[in-house]
Amino acid sequence: MSKALRTTIIHLNELGEKHIGFMKIHPRLDEIVIRQ
């Protein structure tokens, strides 16, 4: 695996963790997004 690809995967994992944490704080916002 190339270094750039590994860095990208790590970055996406960090973004995913932030997104999950945000949706725990704002569960209704997630429902609004799904309905639209």
TL;DR?
The protein is an all-alpha fold and 36 residues long. Helices cover 89% and strands 0% of the residues.
Query: How large is the radius of gyration?
Result: 14 Å
Question: Structural class from helices and strands?
Answer: mainly alpha
Low-pLDDT regions: none
Please tell me the total number of domains.
Answer: 1
The helix content, as a percent range, equals over 70%
Number of strands: 0
Organism: Heterorhabditis bacteriophora (Entomopathogenic nematode worm)
Protein name: Transcriptional regulator
How would you summarize the topology of this molecule?
Elements: H1 3-25, H2 27-35
Main attributes of the structure:
single chain; 36 residues; mainly alpha; 89% helix; elongated
Characterization of the model:
By secondary structure, the chain is an all-alpha fold. It has one domain. Helices cover 89% and strands 0% of the residues. It has two helices and no strands. It has helices at 3-25, 27-35. It is elongated, with a radius of gyration of 14 Å. The chain starts with a helix and ends with a helix. The model has no long low-confidence stretch (mean pLDDT 79).
